[in-house]
Structures are given as C-alpha cells and as structure tokens.
Write the structure tokens for this entry.
Amino acid sequence: MKPHAEIAEVWPRDGRVRLVGHIHGHPAEGEWRLLLTRRSHAEQRLDYPAQVKGDRFEGELPVADLAAATDTAETDIGVEDGAGVEEWDIHLTDGEVELRAGRRLDDIRGKKKIMVFPEQRVHGIGVRPYYTVKDNLSLECRTGAST
C-alpha cells in the first residue's frame, strides 16, 4: 500500500475541521503540515500546522478560510442543482512529500456512500468533509442552499 495519512477521526464543529490520524508507510520525522489543494486550480493551496508525535498526527483548519477562498473564486465554481461546488483535497506534507489523507486500513469500502459528515455554514458557504470513491478525505464547499 502506498504511503498515506491514515485518518482515524474527523471532527467538523465549532467552525473548524479537526483531523487525527497516523502517518502510514513513511518516516514521521520533521515538521508536518495539513495541505489543502483546490481540485480545479491546483496552484491554489492552504496549509496549517500539524502536530506529530511518533507516527500520530493531529491538525485542524478553519472553515472560514475555505469559505473565503471559495467565495473569491465563485465565478470559477461549477454549477450543480443551482449551487456552486468546489472541492479541496487534503494531504499531510513535510515539505518534500505529500501524503494523501484517507482511510484505507479498515474493512469499510465505499465510505462515500456510508460516512456522512455535517456541513458547517459560514458567509453563505457550506463546508463539509467527505470521503471520495477512493476512500480519500476531501472537503466540499457549496454555495447556495444547504443540502
């Protein structure tokens, strides 16, 4: 299995998304950061400190940052059911390697249809973590009405 950031816990509340997990398949030395990459514009990135002890990591990101980045780029957002949608992929990085965040070491396949996280709304934009079809963790930013 490829090295990755194995997600153990996702806590979307109080205007933040807190992530807890383990670094799998790569030395956990050095300084690590949570890296968010806007899927439709890979050059647009946000990053936040991650605390690492042994192979365990923990970090959080404010949803207001995603809402602001999505709002300023609203003209670039695709339209689905009357609401604009933008997706951000999550990695853990030490500056040299980027490990995709996901949950693959359990026996649950198809998390996208099983695990649903609550949406947090800020400045008219809803931010919600979700698992992709490959069991990676991403964030969805949706303008318009809540779903």
About this structure: The CA atoms of residues 4 and 99 lie 5 Å apart. The radius of gyration is 15 Å. Helices lie at 63-72, 111-114. The mean pLDDT is 90.
